[in-house]
Amino acid sequence: MELDLHIHTRYSFDSAMKPAKIIDIAKARGLSGVAITDHNTVEGALETQKIAPPDFVVIIGEEIGTKAGDIIGLFLKEEITDDDPLDVIAKIKSQGGIAILAHPFVQHLSIEDKVAKKLDACEGFNARHTRCKKFEGRCEKRITEFANHYHLPLVAGSDAHFYGEIGNARTKIPASNFDQIKSTIKRGETIITGVGTSSLGLFISGLLKIIRYIINPVPEAYTLAGKRLLQNK
Ligand SMILES: [Zn+2]
Ligand SMILES: [Zn+2]
């Protein structure tokens, strides 16, 4: 199945997407499911899972801001409010979830060894963060070295904040039901693909953070640029 493992809803401070429309669009774009990974909340994920049809997978996730950068917990049951990366990872695992390093090396030059060793996977492709500012170039080579060093499976997500971005990055896994997804990701049996989101989309979502407190609803906008294809195994 093909999943987009990084999507925000209007429960995130920087998105306005509605759960029902996310599901409709994801299905129309051939996705079997999504992970909803709002910033520091699981509310949007819970709502999306509640309204999803039986043939569409919704994984409860949360993107948690930590001192080591954003960490995504998938297969969560409860919201996590910590900001220490080791505490966050421990809480994700205590719920039976998996801990994924989001867009590595975008904000940070390096990841501490003690944090890296506790991760279950890392994003090998994030459609919004294809450039590592600090490395003055694309992130893939650095991420691949990091993932190989720590034997971390790679996953991909669009990091969609607008409807047009849904499915821009995909994680393909040989699973046929919900229960198999977690173990298949942990074994690293993933193929990741994606297209980078344009700087226009990123600019508009930066603006959105400012204007969403003033007007509602917020306009949708997106374009696509630059095809990429990565493979893990
Ligand atoms: Zn992030
Ligand atoms: Zn995100």
Summarize the amount of helix as a percent range. Answer: 25-40%
| % residues in beta strands | 25-35%
Number of β-strand runs: 12
What letter string, H or E per element, gives the SSE order? EHEHEEHEHEEEHEEHEHE
Number of alpha- plus pi-helical segments: 7
Major beta-sheet overview:
10 strands, mixed
The pLDDT mean sits at 84
Strand order of the largest sheet: 9-6-5-4-3-2-1-10-11-12
Structural class: alpha/beta
End-to-end gap: 16 Å
Unreliable parts: 211-233
Question: What small ligands are held by the chains?
Answer: zinc ion
- In one word, what is the shape? globular
Rounded radius of gyration (Å)? 16 Å
Can you give a write-up of this model?
With 233 residues, the chain is of the alpha/beta class. It has helices at 19-28, 43-51, 85-94, 113-116, 140-149, 178-186, 199-211, and strands at residues 2-7, 33-39, 57-66, 69-74, 98-101, 121-126, 131-132, 137-138, 154-157, 169-172, 191-197, 224-229. A ten-stranded mixed beta sheet has the order 9-6-5-4-3-2-1-10-11-12. α1 packs across α2. The longest helix is centred in the last third of the chain and has 13 residues, at 199-211. It starts with a strand and ends with a strand. One zinc ion (ZN) binds next to loops.
